[in-house]
Amino acid sequence: MDEENPQQETIVKCSECGSRDLLRDEDKGEVCCSDCGLVLIENEIDLGAEWRVFSSDQSDEKSRTGAPMTNMIHDRGLSTDIDWQNKDYSGKAISSRNRSQL
Questions:
Q1: Number of domain units in the chain
Q2: Which residue has the higher pLDDT, 41 or 76?
Q3: What confidence score (pLDDT) does residue 55 get?
Q4: Within 10 A of 25 (CB to CB), how many other CB atoms are there?
């Protein structure tokens, strides 16, 4: 197991050929053997922090994409804020049907 992320298993060698030459493709979420091509892990989830930077000027002022999750709140802190005018992110009015589901 990985010390930083106890839920992710750390694979050190290929189960097919025994090679320790493994490649991690973070874009695809895969770990592959460089020698035989076997995909050892697929659809791996990156549980690291996600930062949003829109220009080089902001690189020193990184901000989180949301509040941290917590088990102390019923929705784990993943709430949605609705404007008091009942408008969505683009300024369009939210229908009464959709408002009733919020």
A1: 1
A2: 41
A3: 65
A4: 13
Q: How far apart are CA 40 and CA 37, in angstroms?
A: 9
CA 48 from chain centre, in angstroms, equals 7
pLDDT tens for each residue of 48-78: 666 666 666 655 666 556 666 777 777 777 7
| pLDDT band, residue 28 (cuts 50/70/90) | confident
> What's the Cα-to-Cα distance from 46 to each of 60, 71, 76, rounded to whole Å?
22, 20, 19
Residue 58 lies in a domain: no
Tell me the residue range of the domain where 40 lies.
1-45
Q: Which of 48, 44, 46, 20 is nearest to 34 (CA)?
A: 20
What SS3 string covers the chain? CCCCCCCCCCCCCCCCCCCCCEEEECCCCEEEECCCCCEEECCCCCCCCCEECCCHHHCCCCEECCCCCCCCCCCCCCCCCCCCCCECCCCCECCHHHHHCC
